[in-house]
Amino acid sequence: TATIVEALAREHPAIRLVRLPENRGAYFARNLGLAAARGDFVAFHDADDFAHPQRLERALAPLLADAQLHATTSRCVRLADDGQFGEARVWPLTRWTPISLVLRREVALQRVGGFEAMRFGADSEYVARLRLLLGEQHHRLVAQPLSLFGQRAGSLTTSGDAGFDRQGWSGLRIAYQETWTERHLVHLLQGDALFRPLPAEVAETLADIGA
């Protein structure tokens, strides 16, 4: 991946590769991207997924048309390497996915903050927190499958304690969702702060790698 991005960066000055010396996990990388980005908008994409060629175009269109919108999400389908759809449910075949998030960077940094330091599941918490703090009217669902999710053996979503079973359940993920849902309810009832500042390690890492 890094080699591909380096080649693209040589052709397009706006593209910049920020590479960590070691794997710090998906959500540290997302926070690093939020801090390092220079554009008005930020989108996320996992290494084992495929984006529709018009993914960014269609996800950005509502944001460009309405300055009061701050974020969009979209839908996906799961696809195995052999070309078979991987969704356990017959209907609906498409499903909403929080990783499809496209957002206004400055609004997110100032009013929502960063992702929680988890190994899995923090995309759902972040989108729920964003919708809660910004207001549902500032988020829009693009009801189209703009991504193909790789359904691969050995991935974080298919193996280990955090992986989903055939019915789409994961005990650890459910426990985490119950935990952050409780925090969000406390915010609604008691006004507890949900803003999550970017960890200090993010700025330190950017300085260390010269990004």
Verbal overview:
The chain is α+β, with helices and mostly antiparallel strands. Helices cover 38% and strands 18% of the residues. It contains 7 helices and 5 strands, in the order H-H-E-E-H-E-E-H-H-E-H-H. The chain has helices at 2-11, 26-36, 55-65, 105-111, 122-134, 171-190, 200-208, and strands spanning 41-43, 49-51, 71-80, 95-104, 139-151. Strands 1-4-3-5-2 form a 5-stranded mixed beta sheet, sandwiched between helices. 20% of the residues are buried.
Question: Regions with pLDDT < 50 over 5+ consecutive residues?
Answer: none
Spatial order of strands in the largest sheet: 1-4-3-5-2
Helix content: 25-40%
- Strand/helix succession: HHEEHEEHHEHH
Mean pLDDT: 89
Which structural category fits the helices and strands?
Answer: alpha+beta
Radius of gyration: 17 Å
Instruction: Compute the separation of the termini in Å.
Output: 18 Å
Structure annotation, total helices: 7
Topology summary:
Elements lengths: L1 H10 L14 H11 L4 E3 L5 E3 L3 H11 L5 E10 L14 E10 H7 L10 H13 L4 E13 L19 H20 L9 H9 L3
Parallel strand pairs: 3-5
Antiparallel strand pairs: 1-4, 2-5, 3-4
Helix pairs in contact: 2-7, 5-6
